[in-house]
Design a protein that fits this description.
- The chain is α/β, with parallel strands linked by helices.
- It has one domain (about 5-95): 3-Layer(aba) Sandwich (Rossmann fold).
- Helices cover about 40% and strands about 15% of the residues.
- The chain is built from 4 helices and 4 strands, in the order βαβαβαβα.
- The chain has helices spanning about 10-25, 40-45, 60-70, 90-95, and strands spanning about 5-10, 30, 50, 80.
- The protein has a 4-stranded parallel β-sheet with strand order 2-1-3-4, with helices on both faces.
- Helix 2 (about 40-45) runs parallel beside helix 3.
- The protein is globular and about 30 Å long.
């Protein structure tokens, strides 16, 4: 089943590579290069899932995840953390911010 997937990351290369793979599988891909726009895009575009980088210069992925997860209209959208950060505390904190995985 094709999904609408929102990718949130500040790395153009990472976003384009991930988007290409997902499009090849038949999914619709929405992109934003900063997490500050994530809650509004989620509200307007109704993605089925969000792939969120944690380390983003404008607003951290933690904040974008929290704002998306706490809005009634977008709380049902799973936020999957996709990050180069690999510290256990970062993952614990992401889950506390409403991340799904």
């Amino acid at each position: 089943m094709p999904l609408r997937i929102l990718i949130v990351d500040d790395s153009v290369a990472d976003v384009e590579a991930t988007a290409a793979l997902l499009r090849d599988e038949g999914h619709t891909v929405l992109l934003t290069y900063g997490s500050n726009k994530c809650p509004q895009i989620a509200l307007n575009e109704h993605p089925d899932i969000i792939l969120m980088e944690l380390v983003i210069p404008d607003v951290s992925g933690f904040q974008g995840t929290r704002e998306t997860g706490r809005r009634e209209a977008t709380a049902h959208i799973p936020v999957i953390v996709v990050s180069r950060k690999d510290e256990e505390m970062d993952w614990v904190w992401a889950m506390k911010q409403e991340a799904s995985a």
